[in-house]
Amino acid sequence: MIHILNRTHQTRWILPLCLLAFSPISAQTSTSYYRPGVTTEGAVYFLPKTAVKVTVQVEKAIYTPGDLCRYSERYLRIKDVSPESSVSYRITAIRQEAVAVADTTKRYAVKFDARTSACNVVLSDDGILRAINTEEKVTGNRPADGQQIKTSGQKLLPSPHQYLSEEMLAAGSTAKMAELIAQDIYEIRESRNLLVRGQADYMPKDGEQLRLMLSQLELHDRVLTSMFTGTTVKDTAEYCFTVIPDKTISRDILFRFSQKLGLVDSDDLSGAPYYISIEDLSTAPKPEPVDPKKNAKPVPGIYVNIPGRLRATVADMEKTFVTDEFPAGQFGNVELLSGALFNKRYTTHLLLHPISGAVEKLEAEQPK
User: Would you tell me how many other CB atoms lie within 10 Å of the CB of residue 175?
Assistant: First the structure.
């Protein structure tokens, strides 16, 4: 009987590992290429191939002019304050990481037989073989392309009108109000300087009280000054793009970016293109040639990857932003672990690398 226990980000199959009898004494794991409608009793698993997940961090800045922006240079000596609202974007970070996806060209079936000892086979949610008779680290799900995965906002300043005195509110003109508010700003800054120098008429009793007083004066200054300089509210969002390379890629458009619109579709010409390139580093050994005239019989065992490596680069027309190297099962070969490791005479613990599908740990214990 097959028992399936669902767990976060992985599926655990508690299975009697089937072992076809190749001799009267022992049985071995039988693994073959999956053929729909043929493999009826057993588990089907995939080996992984490497996808490159690119995370782009984008900052959005919304500028709102202050009510007294026309008087910023006259009273505060601050030049070039824009009277127009605006929205702008900029990329603050780009990073890459490797994630595993099922390689549908490397699909195998393992048959099961009750004559052998039970074996604990761990598969991911999409059927990738992770481990046999041991635990594996749980990894997160892969977000969809272009999906916004995280945002963070900036704390807004309080309304400046709650800091205005009765005299300021009763001013007969905007120019007069600006003059009174500017005088208040200079008085706040003078009070703060006196506290820092220890020359204030009333000095706080301890350091904590001094910190609170300086913090309140700083906030008061910022709020009133924003009536002249305006406010800029910034939000940061992260977007995920995933590329699954099966061959070398030379400068494919990953996304486009506009300083006024942010991230746009790859076919939207309002944004400047950002490219991704994937290079096969050809580090895996070449497989031995197979004679097609020989009708090789299926060999029992478990298939694993001998990965190669890839180099992923994200760049625009002018510069390179990030370059990383990752193991890649699709740029390597497949190796067969003998089924003799999984018969009754051994308790074998197999752990595969979650990204490359290569053997990370292999321990065979012979019962005493």
Answer: 13
Largest CA distance in the chain: 107
Which pTM value belongs to this model?
0.76
Catalogue the E-assigned strands of the chain. 3-7, 10-16, 19-21, 27-29, 31-33, 42-64, 86-111, 118-124, 129-132, 147-153, 231-243, 249-258, 262-264, 272-280, 301-315, 320-338, 347-352, 359-365
Tell me the sheet residues that pair with 94: 56
Residue with tokens 């001094």: 210
What are the pLDDT digits (tens) for 165-214? 889 988 889 999 999 999 999 999 999 999 888 888 888 888 899 999 99
The amino acid at 64: T
Q: How far apart are CA 218 and CA 185, in angstroms?
A: 10
β-strand 27-29 against 31-33: which pairing, if any?
A: unpaired
Cα–Cα distance, 346 to 362 (Å, whole number) = 12
